[in-house]
Specification:
Layout (H helix, E strand, L loop, with lengths): L2 H19 L4 H13 L3 H14 L4 H13 L3 H14 L4 H13 L3 H14 L4 H14 L2 H14 L6 H9 L6
Helix pairs in contact: 1-2, 2-3, 3-4, 4-5, 5-6, 6-7, 7-8, 8-9, 9-10
Length: about 180
Amino acid sequence: GGGGKMTHQLIEEVFISAIKFDPKSAVAYRGLGDTYLAKISIEEARQTYKFLIRMEPDDDSVLVKLAEIAESQGDVEEAIQYYQQAVLVNDSFSPRFYHLAELLVKVGQPEVATESILQAVELEPQNPKYLDLLIEIAIICGNKDLALKGYGDLRLVNPENHKLHNFKDRIYKINQSN
């Protein structure tokens, strides 16, 4: 409906007034950033969150928002940096580690990705999606022991997984000397 635009506009003005009133109000900046994000003013949202993170460098949820914005804009390297900061601040969310590992593989850093996916698996050892990526990364790195361990875990958790056969072949092709 046409009403939605108006509310965003109104909310935005409220937060901007709040910031004028108290330029150090992190709450107001967060609200403003979220409003920009909701109305898909991506660049404004990005700038607002960047400002906010200078005030509150330990806000992992804002770091993740910055990572998501960067990724949506195609800035994968920047997204990786924000995710890395976020998991340093708060290492209790496995999807962040998983996603960080995916991005690191994308930019050709499978060795670094290994650390991340291992963290994700440690937090959620029964997650087949995580074990799947762990095996992929281990194969890329030529790490046969890790690949086999991941394969064994995946087979226990998800014996019907259609990728198991393919993984087995690829793992046995890994050169031992690596």
